[in-house]
Amino acid sequence: MTVTVLIADDQDMVRAALRAILDRRPDLEVVGEAADGERAVALAAELRPDVVLMDVRMPGLTGVEATRRILGAAVPSKILVLTTFDLDEYVQSALRAGASGFLLKNASPEQLCDAVRAVAAGNAVLAPAVTRRIAEAFQAPPAKAAVDGLTARELEVLVLVGRGLSNARIARTLDLSESGVKSRVNRILTRLGLENRVQAALLAREAGLLDELP
């Protein structure tokens, strides 16, 4: 199955480099490019790509607002935020807007391609070098108190979400049905007041679950 990608970045050279990397992979296909947020919103609605690679710092409509508009319009694309700065204030806003994760622009070509595939599969992608700092800055409920009300099974699911596993892999790991995992993930998000899997992954890390459990 080919993953379709829309690249949104205001720098011509960056877009060209990203396209060259992605188009060399037989399972990835760049279907469009946007040089600003307005164009990204329009192309996402028109092309409905699996993944939008979204630069957060663009003139005019920022990547954060473009992310909000794309997801608010129920376009089925996943948003993978690209940033040069590991503690860019826009990253946190993009995650709250519903982005599926973020990746630094100095990531290797393989890291980029793996991240695109992971996001397309419904997983959360967080640049590992800065995930903890983003989690610390993320305005979530007090993490430990928030997860105390979850059942043992929900905690297991939350840990695996935090580790970036898809619903299918969680189902195989815990010997559950995929629909059962989806139901539990939705229940966890509702009970914790979170909007998406990325926020759940951040909360799991902040609560120390990824350190405490095998």
From TrEMBL:
Keywords: DNA-binding, Phosphoprotein, Transcription, Transcription regulation
UniProt xrefs under SUPFAM superfamilies: C-terminal effector domain of the bipartite response regulators, CheY-like
PANTHER family linked to this entry: TRANSCRIPTIONAL REGULATORY PROTEIN NARL-RELATED, TWO-COMPONENT RESPONSE REGULATOR
Protein name: Response regulator transcription factor
UniProt xrefs under InterPro entries: CheY-like_superfamily, NreC/VraR/RcsB-like_REC, Sig_transdc_resp-reg_C-effctor, Sig_transdc_resp-reg_receiver, Tscrpt_reg_LuxR_C, WalR-like
Domain of life: Bacteria
PROSITE patterns recorded: HTH_LUXR_2, RESPONSE_REGULATORY
Domain HTH luxR-type: 143-208
Domain named Response regulatory: residues: 4-120
Residues bearing the modification 4-aspartylphosphate: D55
